[in-house]
Amino acid sequence: MKSIFTVFLDIEKLIYKVLMWVILVPKTLVKITLNPAWAPEYVKAELESDGPPFDEYISPIILLLVVALIPALAFNFLPTFGASISSPAETQPTTDRFLSFEVRTDFRSSSAEMDYFHKWTVTRVVSAIPIQSQTSSAPTAGDGDLTLTSEIHYPLGPVNFIEEIDDNTVKDKFLYTFSDAGEYLIAVSAGKYDPRRFDPASGLGVATEIYNSTLRVIVPVRLDEQIVISNEEQTKDTDAASQEGFETFTATVQRENTLFLAIALMLPPLLFALATKLFTTPIGEDTLKESFYTQCYYFSPLSMAIWASYYARYFFTSDAYFYADNNLAIQVIWLPPLLAALWFIRAEVKTIEDARGVNGIRSLIITLVCIAILLFAASGIFQFATLQDDVRLLAIRIFPILSAALIAGFGYAWYRRRRSRNEFMKPSHYIGIVLNAVVLIALLNFVSARFGVQSQPEVVSRTVEPEVSATALVGSTEAATSVSVLPTQTPTAQITVIENSPTPEAGSTPIVVETPTPNPFYVEEFNTDLATWIEFMTSGDSSLVEKKVDLGVLSIALFQRDTITSRYYLVNNSFSYSDVKVEAVVTNRGNNSNGVGLICRYSDIGWYEVQVSNSQTFSVYVVDSIGLMSQGYNEIAQFDSNQILSGLSTNIYTMTCKGNVISLFVNGNLLWEYTDTQFGFADGKIGLSVWSPQSLPVNVEIETLTVSAPE
Fold first, then answer.
1. Which of 20, 232, 370, 635 has its CA 20 to 30 A from that of 294?
2. Distance between CA 588 and CA 580 in Å, rounded?
3. Are residues 643 and 667 in contact, defined by beta-carbon separation less than 8 angstroms?
4. What pairs with residue 704 in β-bridges?
5. Which residues are bridge partners to 556 per DSSP?
6. Per-residue pLDDT tens for 591-624?
7. In sequence order, what DSSP letters do the residues of 129-162 get, joined into one string?
8. Is 624 helix (H, G, I), strand (E, B) or coil?
């Protein structure tokens, strides 16, 4: 066990060595850059000396590791700059449509002379769904996403929630109410600017830094369903400047995979060392060492320039070069590595020319070939994730070919040796070759039979479930009702056990009764309560809805609050239909700006809806609940029609869903047909809706609702 005195001595040596590196690294880099021819002479002299090598200048391998390995490792611990938007509704799901959003922005610049701004934008995602209106008889596609609102926060602006955390970090918040269902994008542009050079209100001028972040918000159709927020942006939490980041970086340096990275960084110098000595001297450890060390010296300035430019680009802000044009700034940043590359090529050409004794053109070709090999290898490394399977297949296919080629080379070399000794092939040699071939084939057959993988496809028989039309439940203590009816079926009888009947004894006959299956086609005259109907709203306040069933009439009234459109729904939960006809007799008891809708194929994923108003207008909607195409109310058509009786009148509204064709009739007249080629709702429940496309209050009476099979 080491004493405390020994530990202090080790620390003393380490500190002194690091301080010497601080001096020797730049000294060596400057020396190599100013005089590349010095490197091979210095390496040769140091390797031949009896004393400790590389005392005046830093060792070439250590130099390359310092300027290439350490920046590569530190790359994963760079501080993260950018904006990250979030909402409390991400972790605490809510049905409230009034949401708050917060953005945290980490800037590169820490100048106290700068101000901050945040521009918030709410956009509704609109898919290209054909829409027809009164002004156009041909379908037209949507022009793209719809921007709903935009708000700018800055110190002198009318709204400002910006909070400074430190010189680099600020927070801001944004409040918004989603009045309609659909898919929205909440975007924010966070910037830092010099007030003398940029106006956030007009966007004129040059900002120092600008970062963007987006949050996806999905507002469901029904008010009782939770809003879904999707945030796919990932941020790094480790900061290299923090204590945790430093400890993590130190641990990374000590890992075993760091050794493999260091070895990988040594491969390019080794390649050029081989290009310098190959075919001129026997390749060995001692013959390559001098050339390898020289190449490590040459690669160090190039690596230093590349990493320095990368880090400069990472921390760059527009005020670095006095707000110069961005293209000019990028050119200035990447100028050092380009100059270093030209310097490197010149140094390599001269070194290969001197070592191999060839002219400048040949040495240039050798240098360019080596560079091409390095670029090809680097491209393969960067694309390994996409080429991984191709590499696997290539390796499996090529290694038997290489093995066979190696054995063939052995045979050719053996033949050449015999010819050099004037020895000719004898019949025994040919017999031996044939016997070797026979043994090889036999061994291959044995190996394939003994260790081969059987991969014959298995024949799987298709299981067909038996068709069941009725089931007798014997011994049940509770009655179970399960009705699945297609509109085109003729009602049949279902055999069930009498509820709460005792379990029959062995050999006895169970007591059963025939319970007729409820008819899916019916006329609802509203003489009883609406126990089989479910109600919900997609917007508005349920306390402002008055529903009453009295004397064979369903009365629904919607009252006014603010400017929010109330959408009230009633859906019969008893049956599901594919093809169906729904007809309602409706009397208006309020103003003309009402809306009575019929719906078919209602399910959790969406429904079709037609809506008619006594103001002599009608609309056709496809309601997408989950975002199959475009979440929310997708208006397919909107027209006027004098077939609709206005005022305090009674109208008959009819909707048919047959196949993929949705039709609307008013008072027996066909007003519209829509062929759905996008959403494809196959089946679902029927229902009705009451809402106002313009103003409230609304008061309507529904006398009958008839459900039948379409003609």
1. 20
2. 25
3. yes
4. 585
5. 547, 700
6. 777 889 999 999 999 999 999 998 899 999 999 9
7. --EEETTEEEEE---S-EEEEEEEE-TTSS----
8. strand
The C-alpha angle 252, 258, 264, rounded to 5 degrees, equals 150
Query: Tell me, which fold does domain 522-708 have in CATH?
Result: Jelly Rolls (2.60.120)
Radius of gyration of the chain (CA): 41
**What is the rounded distance in angstroms from the CA atom of residue 657 to the CA atom of residue 664?**
9
The two tokens of residue 247 are 């400890």
Contact (CB, 8 A) for 87 and 185: no
Which of 533, 625, 570, 538 shows the shortest CA–CA distance to 222? 538
Instruction: At 394, list the tokens.
Output: 């290539």
Instruction: Return the residue matching tokens 């390797």.
Output: 47
Contact 190, 210 (CB under 8 A): yes
- Asked whether residue 636 carries a pLDDT value surpassing 80, the answer given is yes
Give me the pLDDT at residue 247, please.
Answer: 53
Within 10 Å of residue 294's Cβ, how many Cβ atoms?
A: 26
522-708 has the same fold as 82-235:
no
**Exposed, middle or buried: residue 700 (CB in 10 Å: 0-12, 13-18, 19+)?**
buried
Distance, in Å, from the CA atom of 686 to the CA atom of 603, rounded to the nearest integer, reads 9
Nearest-CA neighbor of 564 among 73, 98, 129?
98
Stronger pLDDT, 518 or 523, i.e. the higher one? 523
Q: Mean pLDDT, the chain, as a whole number? A: 83
Specify the pLDDT at position 471: 35
- C-alpha to C-alpha distance for 344 and 234, rounded to whole angstroms: 39
Residue 251 backbone phi and psi in degrees, to 5: -65, -35
In this structure, which amino acid lies at residue 289? Answer: K
Decide if 299 contacts 271 (C-beta within 8 A): no
CA distances from 353 to 37, 289, 356 (A): 12, 18, 6
Query: Nearest-CA neighbor of 583 among 706, 442, 445?
Result: 706
Query: Could you give the count of Cα atoms lying within 13 Å of 443 in the half-sphere of its Cβ?
Result: 6
Domain boundaries, the chain: 18-72+245-382, 82-235, 522-708
- Interatomic CA distance for residues 530 and 554, integer angstroms: 10
Contact 207, 111 (CB under 8 A): no
Nearest C-alpha neighbor of 689 from the set 574, 560, 538? 538
Supply 555's token pair. Answer: 């009365």
Residues with Cβ within 8 Å of 621's Cβ and at least 6 positions away in sequence, in order, are: 608, 609, 610, 611, 633, 634, 635, 636
Query: With contact defined as beta carbons under 8 Å apart, do 617 and 642 qualify?
Result: no
Q: Which is nearest to 527 in space by CA: 557, 552, 501?
A: 552
Tell me the C-alpha distance between 107 and 311, whole Å. 15
Residue pair 347/367 in contact by the 8 Å Cβ criterion: no
Q: What's the Cα-to-Cα distance from 333 to each of 51, 330, 351, rounded to whole Å?
A: 42, 5, 29
What residues contact 327, with CB distance under 8 A and at least 6 apart?
Answer: none
Contact, 290 vs 44, CB < 8 A? yes
Query: What's the predicted TM-score (pTM) here?
Result: 0.68
3-state secondary structure 46-88: HHHCCCCCCCCCCCHHHHHHHHHHHHHHHHHHCCCCEEEEECH
Tokens 């590499």 — which residue? 391
Give the integer Cα–Cα distance in Å for 9 and 104: 47
Per DSSP, the three-state class of 122 is strand
**Domain over 82-235 is classified CATH 3.30.70:** no
Q: What is the mean pLDDT of residues 264-288?
A: 89
Residue 1 buriedness (CB in 10 A; 0-12 / 13-18 / 19+): exposed
pLDDT-derived band at 152, boundaries 50, 70, 90: very high
Report, as an integer, the average pLDDT of 529-537.
Answer: 90
Residue whose pair of structure tokens reads 């005392």 in the numeric block: 55
Which residue type is seen at 535? E
